[in-house]
Amino acid sequence: MTSPVKPTAVGNGQAWLVNLQAHGYRLTAPRRAVVEVISLSQHLLTPLDIFELARARYPRLGLVTVYRTVEKLEELGLIQRVHQPSGCQAFIAAFSGHQHLLICQRCGRVEFFSGDQATINTLAAEVSSHSGYAIEEHWLQLFGTCLICRETER
Amino acid sequence: MTSPVKPTAVGNGQAWLVNLQAHGYRLTAPRRAVVEVISLSQHLLTPLDIFELARARYPRLGLVTVYRTVEKLEELGLIQRVHQPSGCQAFIAAFSGHQHLLICQRCGRVEFFSGDQATINTLAAEVSSHSGYAIEEHWLQLFGTCLICRETER
DNA sequence: TTTTATGCAAAGTATTTGCACGGGA
DNA sequence: TCCCGTGCAAATACTTTGCATAAAA
Questions:
Q1: Is the pTM of this model over 0.85?
Q2: C-alpha to C-alpha distance for B135 and A143, rounded to whole angstroms
């Protein structure tokens, strides 16, 4: 089983702006600020986190605009919502292709890894035949403490 | 890889009441109603679902009591919150031991399966060595459509 | 110029807390 | 009897909507 671990693809904000524009959305200063903040982060960010960080770039920003921009970025598949035991309001830049998540529960750092796809498919087929379910989607996520947090810990 | 699929352990409500009492909580009519409703269901239930179902058994029930009872049952490990793409407010009777979830996205039916533990452990070890994370927990969930919903579908 | 995007304020939704009363042990 | 648990009402937190103005194209 192979499982290369990849950090989030940081710095793709320019491509997101192009993508937004290609879908008929306008490029505005508030959107640029929100896009930059999310696309430059390797950490999970809540709408409020994004709001606070992006206000440093564009002080007139409203929280409502963060919600509306996040909604569009999610529709376009540029960011994804991440579910954790501690909550489900946080977002991260999406990795293209199906990836599994490795999440630091201290700092919210996220990395992606690809489990052996064949193994997952075998499991899904087996569960499907035992249960009669048609399986449409799967989540595989690991939670832990990242290297930096482990070093900082004590 | 083995993956026996097990329906939720229905009908254990009496044991939950004993457990509550053993932890110093009183057995009251509202608690009995909530416990019965959840323990008899194979489906995900939100606090509001529980409220509506349990009111049939105890009409004076308040929604607040549902929240407070659910909180205690979760603390005791008798129920668990289930995260889905469509939301994370629903609960199901917990299976003892670590189990993975198979969830019907139409009706909320939940079954448990145990993926090959060795495979998950191997993956976790590999991801840990590549990433430097200390891995503490994992989620493996399959989403699909159960047999009954597939038959009802058209 | 046209139409979308914005921020504010208000409205929703989900959940938690304060409190006086009622019921379990 | 004692004190925990309850329901109601209010408070809180999070998110969405309505609307007049501002800005992109």
A1: yes
A2: 6
